[in-house]
C-alpha cells in the first residue's frame, strides 16, 4: 500500500507503508460518533444566583433528558402497536401489560412536560414541578386522612 507520509525533515515523501502500521494508527485514533456520554450537571435549582454557565448547562441537560423521555414514550408506543398488530382481536387480553406501561409512561411524561409547549425550558418545567408539589401539599393538609399519607384512621 502506498501513502503520503511526512518525513523527519518536514517534507512529504511517497513510500510504501506496512498494513499493520496503518491498522495500529487507526486503532490509536478511534473516533466514536455514537453513544456520546455527557456527565450529569446540577439541575437549575442547584445553580447559584448569577451563574450563567450553570444555567446553560442545566438547560442543556434538561433538553437531553426531555429527548430521552420522548424516545422512551415512542419506544413503548411502538411496542404497544406491535403487540396490537401481532395479537389482532385478542389485543385487549394479551396486551394488557403494554397498555398499562404506556399509560404510566405517558402520564409521567405529561406530568413533567405537559403544557410547556414547544418553547418550554428548564425554568418553566421547574416552576411547574414546584406548583404541582405545592398543590399536593395543600391537598394533603386539607384532607389528612387521604390514602397515601400514612394515616390508618377512617
From TrEMBL:
InterPro entries: NADH_UbQ_OxRdtase_su10, NDUFB10. GO terms for cellular component: mitochondrial inner membrane; respiratory chain complex I. Keywords: Electron transport, Membrane, Mitochondrion, Mitochondrion inner membrane, Respiratory chain, Transport. It is a peripheral membrane protein. The keyword Transmembrane helix does not apply. Its main location: mitochondrion. It holds the Pfam family NDUFB10. It is found in: Mitochondrion inner membrane. Accessory subunit that is involved in the functional assembly of the mitochondrial respiratory chain complex I. Complex I has an NADH dehydrogenase activity with ubiquinone as an immediate electron acceptor and mediates the transfer of electrons from NADH to the respiratory chain. Belongs to the complex I NDUFB10 subunit family. PANTHER family: NADH DEHYDROGENASE [UBIQUINONE] 1 BETA SUBCOMPLEX SUBUNIT 10 (PTHR13094:SF1), NADH-UBIQUINONE OXIDOREDUCTASE PDSW SUBUNIT (PTHR13094). This is NADH dehydrogenase [ubiquinone] 1 beta subcomplex subunit 10. It comes from Geospiza fortis (Medium ground-finch). The gene is NDUFB10.
Amino acid at each position: 500500500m502506498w501513502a503520503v507520509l511526512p518525513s523527519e525533515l518536514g517534507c512529504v515523501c511517497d513510500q510504501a507503508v506496512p498494513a499493520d502500521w496503518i491498522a495500529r494508527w487507526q486503532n490509536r485514533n478511534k473516533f466514536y460518533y455514537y453513544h456520546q456520554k455527557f456527565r450529569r450537571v446540577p439541575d437549575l435549582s442547584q445553580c447559584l444566583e448569577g451563574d450563567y454557565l450553570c444555567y446553560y448547562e442545566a438547560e442543556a441537560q434538561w433538553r437531553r433528558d426531555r429527548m430521552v423521555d420522548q424516545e422512551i414514550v415512542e419506544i413503548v408506543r411502538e411496542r404497544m402497536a406491535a403487540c396490537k398488530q401481532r395479537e389482532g382481536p385478542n389485543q385487549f387480553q394479551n396486551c394488557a401489560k403494554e397498555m398499562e406501561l404506556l399509560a404510566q409512561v405517558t402520564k409521567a411524561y405529561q406530568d413533567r412536560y405537559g403544557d410547556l409547549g414547544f418553547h418550554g425550558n428548564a425554568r418553566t418545567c421547574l416552576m411547574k414541578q414546584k406548583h404541582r408539589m405545592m398543590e399536593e401539599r395543600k391537598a394533603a393538609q386539607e384532607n389528612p386522612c387521604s390514602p397515601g399519607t400514612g394515616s390508618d384512621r377512617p
